[in-house]
Give the backbone structure.
Amino acid sequence: MHQQMIFVNLATDDVAASKKFFTELGYTINPQFSTDDCTCVVISDTIVAMLLSKQRYADFTKKEIADSTKTSEVLICLSAESREKVDELVGRAVAAGGTANDDVQDHGFMYGRSFDDLDGHSWEVMWMDPAAVQG
């Protein structure tokens, strides 16, 4: 059975710095799909972030590339296995040079925080109690 994947393509000012940032978060780099102009960050078996230099990113669109430090072009939300894992990932992001966003979202059955990466892309990390998802 085909397992559908998602490839999130994001423009970056500095491919090497972005590669280092996401490696410090604990993610791996797939060298087969990485060059000086892009890095392939493996987030899970089904989620990959392609971090492209702005010049390379422009090869894929005719639209103006958003300045993600001033404009929100996408909100990326990753699940976590626990509240502690949410805090751990956001903590690693801040330690690697990212910026924590907003206040903690704590609804009891759902807990989340967010950060901006080095280029200002917003990443949300959330945990949801599995019992709350069961119908």
In short: The mean pLDDT is 94. Strands lie at 6-12, 28-29, 38-42, 47-53, 75-79, 99-106, 110-116, 122-128. The two ends are 26 Å apart (CA to CA). DSSP finds four helices and eight strands in the chain.
